[in-house]
């Protein structure tokens, strides 16, 4: 493990650089990425089958898998190929801190679920019933949407905050000896001082996803091929941004 370094502020255009370099990192080992993503997709599918336990297992193991992919990205950056075993490195390293981060994920998901149930449970039930009812009163539906909007906005902001706090946390836990709390704090600080490049990154990635969505309807085969590399590119771009923000050179 390397020593803990303070995050640095980078220029706004680096957000675009993260995507381009992430894309390059993916195409240095395309078949490796497809193999890894296939295994991860099958695991996600398996988790979705078991209602209740499956989502908890997915949230608990997500940081472990993601940390393994960060190590895999480092290997690819060094000229090696990405292997399926990299996905499981977080388990092999017996890093209890990654499990702790997964526990934090599960805790906040439970909290948000309870808040959603208490705040808008009855409204959500009524809303779902009216959406699938062809004879539903439009004015009542509009009132329900208006009532639920503050909850949706609040939960979205909280989820955005949790995403920021956890953005670099798996990489910090796998590459440095920091604690879970320190990783979350440092990740939040890194994102706070790099708000503009992250906005550039999110806008550019959103535009790419929109373009791929259009391609799916116009040229389906091409759209599917491009879509296969979306998640790998996002994953690789997180590693590139981590290297950019926490190291002197990428």
Quick recap of the structure?
This protein has helices at residues 14-26, 30-49, 53-77, 84-87, 89-92, 96-131, 138-166, 169-175, 180-192, 195-218, 220-227, 230-246.
- Amino-to-carboxy terminus distance: 17 Å
Low-confidence stretches: none
Strand portion:
under 5%
* Secondary structure tally: strands: 0
Indicate the radius of gyration in whole angstroms.
20 Å
Q: Return the structural class.
A: mainly alpha
Sheet with most strands? none
What pattern of helices and strands is seen along the backbone?
HHHHHHHHHHHH
Mean pLDDT: 86
Total of DSSP H or I helical runs spanning 4+ residues: 12
Helix residue percentage: over 70%
* Coarse shape: globular
Folded structure, characterized:
The chain is 80% helix and 0% strand. The chain has helices at 14-26, 30-49, 53-77, 84-87, 89-92, 96-131, 138-166, 169-175, 180-192, 195-218, 220-227, 230-246. Helix 2 (30-49) runs antiparallel to helix 3 (53-77), helix 3 packs across helix 8 (169-175) and helix 8 (169-175) packs across helix 9. The longest helix has 36 residues, at 96-131. The radius of gyration is 20 Å and the shape is globular. The chain starts with 13 loop residues before the first helix and ends with a helix.
């Amino acid at each position: 493990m390397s020593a803990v370094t303070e995050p640095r502020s980078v220029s706004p255009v680096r957000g675009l650089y993260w995507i381009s370099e992430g894309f390059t990192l993916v195409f240095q080992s395309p078949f490796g990425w497809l193999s890894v993503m296939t295994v991860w997709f099958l695991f996600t599918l398996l988790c979705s089958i078991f209602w209740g336990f499956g989502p908890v297992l997915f949230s608990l193991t997500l940081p472990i898998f993601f940390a393994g992919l960060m190590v895999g990205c480092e290997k690819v950056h060094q000229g090696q190929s990405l292997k399926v075993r990299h996905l499981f490195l977080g388990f092999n390293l017996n890093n209890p801190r990654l499990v702790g981060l997964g526990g934090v994920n599960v805790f906040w998901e439970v909290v948000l679920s309870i808040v959603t149930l208490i705040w808008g449970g009855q409204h959500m039930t009524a809303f779902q019933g009216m959406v699938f009812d062809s004879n539903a009163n439009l004015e009542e539906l509009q009132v329900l949407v208006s009532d639920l909007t503050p909850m949706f906005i609040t939960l979205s902001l909280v989820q955005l905050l949790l995403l920021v706090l956890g953005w670099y946390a798996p990489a910090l836990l796998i590459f440095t000896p920091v604690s879970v709390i320190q990783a979350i704090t440092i990740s939040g600080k890194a994102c706070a001082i790099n708000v503009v490049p992250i906005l550039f990154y999110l806008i550019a990635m959103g535009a790419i996803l929109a373009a791929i969505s259009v391609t799916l309807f116009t040229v389906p085969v091409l759209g599917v091929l491009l879509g296969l590399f979306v998640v790998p590119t996002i994953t690789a771009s997180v590693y590139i941004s981590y290297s950019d923000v926490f190291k002197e050179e990428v």
